[in-house]
Amino acid sequence: MKNWEKNMRQVVPYVPGEQPDEPDMIKLNTNENPYPPAPEVQEALKNLRADSLRLYPDCTAGALVHALAQYHGLSDDQVFVGVGSDEVLALSFLTFFNSKKPILFPDVTYSFYKVWAELFQVPYECPALNEDFEIEPGDYKKENGGVIFPNPNAPTGVVLPLEQIEEIIRSNPDVVVIVDEAYVDFGAVSALPLLDKYDNLLIVRTFSKSRAMAGMRIGYAMGNPKLLQYLSDVKYSFNSYTMDQTALVLGVEALKNEAYFQETLQKINDTREWTKEQLAALGFIFKDSKTNFVFAAHPDYSGEELFKALRAAHIYVRRFAGERVKEYLRITIGTREEMECLVRFLRKYTGSSK
Amino acid sequence: MKNWEKNMRQVVPYVPGEQPDEPDMIKLNTNENPYPPAPEVQEALKNLRADSLRLYPDCTAGALVHALAQYHGLSDDQVFVGVGSDEVLALSFLTFFNSKKPILFPDVTYSFYKVWAELFQVPYECPALNEDFEIEPGDYKKENGGVIFPNPNAPTGVVLPLEQIEEIIRSNPDVVVIVDEAYVDFGAVSALPLLDKYDNLLIVRTFSKSRAMAGMRIGYAMGNPKLLQYLSDVKYSFNSYTMDQTALVLGVEALKNEAYFQETLQKINDTREWTKEQLAALGFIFKDSKTNFVFAAHPDYSGEELFKALRAAHIYVRRFAGERVKEYLRITIGTREEMECLVRFLRKYTGSSK
């Protein structure tokens, strides 16, 4: 080891789902939307001009912030945007979680939370989900330096009812509580109505799932202006210009067509319900998911075996390490045709005659 | 103050140059390129398809990394890309500067260095540039936790000769030395030949100036693979997918047309030399700049007065606080026509009969 290596920040990074690119693959491993973004996005792409790229983008991301505020019935100073919800969350950890007390998040949840805590040397504790993979609000009433959880939770897909979310926020007036709503559009109830009531609540969203814009890296946070000012100061101390010109333009366009948005959400949700029925019939077990994925295990087959068999058939799903989840597969809801392929394969594999 | 505010990271953010948008303005305040990106970029924009945006971008930014490696005659594992050189630098501070000893950077330099040091609570010392605004290599031989400086320096425009850069690196084998080459394409000598010799050297570049792509937020670092692995681990612990699909595509295109690149550089450098002659004739003082800006003061007029007068005429330049620099204006080199306007205004303002 060289002497200069002694001052390195040494971390175990988050490992994103793989991005294979095979012509015949069925890609159900990173919760991408099977449908393209709204037609307005394609139209706007056509009108982009290279000439303007010589200029810096608007560092306030004003047009996108305004469009999001309008969409959610908020004022512009209640919205903050970033390079995917991952950047928004990373900057939020850096801004809000500076107590010596541990922050709290579930033992089974988005695995990046632990990575950010380690990166920024934030102490943390992970209360266990109950047997039904549910968050127990009581676990979040101990002394802590902040709270973060997704609703619905990932990778379980399980929803926490709004009253219980409020119970957690109400119990923690002295720290920031982050509700990560990456998947909320697929059928959960948002914590947005609580924003007016709790000035320590931050709600984080992404364009990567329901808005079909994973490729553009757009995420945002909603909270009270004072809370967001702290986040904004840290953002301007990290990178003045985070969102490039094309992301700013396309992000605004992606919000314009509510009918298209609702139509694709409905299709995905319908396909999810159909997929659940099929998986149940094949003997899979899973909790009720209100996301664009199902987190399922089969009593007769190990998670590793199923994962490998699917992969050999060019069907990519996600599997996580960890004692409680290693037998599960997180299966993204693709098109109906893709899910039919998946089900056909699993039916054959499990030898079911159904 | 609410209790939850006690755990906030409180910082004084970097303030980027303003981005006015007036039809008749002459914008010489953020060192943007007056010429558009290479024609290949416009062509590629036309071919972007919205359908693919539903998918995550390549988190390794493989195509862009490879294009940059090829361009500089390096291997792919010697290149790291990020959302502008600001993100690359922010992540570098987080990765490399974790000593309890102070890092060193000049008193007059890119003002973001101090902001990153404060954000990540890195101790720092700022050796003073000499009377000629030059870095004194001897100042960088004390014990430290890392070294960073731009070459050419900003906002002075002054070049540090390669032998003196090597002297600084040679004196600091136990820490990482970052040479920020944001402006190197405009006429300075790069430290690239030193990469093979010093495994603790990181060179950082941007597409925002010479490549005319400020709007796309592309920066990169070059260094030995081991050094970059630490940086990459931190990046994957911060945000897996930093570069969106359009930035990855357009970044590759921007590297293809070397003739166009050299032609626009030559035009800017010619205009810079012409501007220097004119400013000198009007009595301005400045050091020899090898960048796309001139850092100039006038003995008979305060920096504040000149800044305000120019602004009133819709000519935007940049001015910095600080005892040593407050009388100076940092004037970006625009088109010849823009600089003629500037000079006409200054000639009239200073009452010169020339």
Structure description:
The structure is a homodimer of 354-residue chains. The first copy, chain A, has 354 residues and is α/β, with parallel strands linked by helices. Chain A folds into two domains: 15-37 and 258-349, Aspartate Aminotransferase, domain 1, CATH 3.90.1150.10; 39-254, Type I PLP-dependent aspartate aminotransferase-like (Major domain) (Aspartate Aminotransferase, domain 2), CATH 3.40.640.10. Chain A is built from ten helices and twelve strands. In chain A, strands 2-8-7-6-5 form a five-stranded mixed beta sheet, sandwiched between helices. Chain A has a three-stranded antiparallel beta sheet with strand order 9-10-12. In chain A, helix 4 links the parallel strand 3 (103-104) and strand 4 (124-125). In chain A, helix 1 (39-47) runs antiparallel to helix 7 (245-254), helix 2 packs parallel to helix 7 and helix 8 (258-281) runs parallel beside helix 10 (336-349). The longest helix of chain A is centred in the C-terminal third of the chain and has 24 residues, at 258-281. The model of chain A has no long low-confidence stretch (mean pLDDT 96). Chains A and B meet through helix 1, helix 3, helix 4, helix 6 and helix 7 of A and helix 1, helix 3, helix 4, helix 6 and helix 7 of B.
Strand content of chain A: 5-15%
Give Rg of chain A in angstroms: 21 Å
CATH fold label of the largest domain in chain A: Aspartate Aminotransferase, domain 2
Q: Biggest interface: chains and residue counts?
A: A-B, 89 and 90 residues
**Strand adjacency order, main sheet of chain A:** 2-8-7-6-5
- Going by CATH, the architecture of the largest domain in chain A would be 3-Layer(aba) Sandwich
User: Overall pLDDT of chain A, averaged?
Assistant: 96
**Unreliable stretches covering 5 or more consecutive residues of chain A:** none
Regarding quaternary structure, what we see is homodimer
Task: Sketch the major β-sheet of chain A.
Answer: 5 strands, mixed
Could you tell me the number of beta strands of chain A?
12
CATH level 4 superfamily of the largest domain in chain A: Type I PLP-dependent aspartate aminotransferase-like (Major domain)
Helix-strand sequence of chain A: EHHEHEHEEHEEEHHHEEHEEH
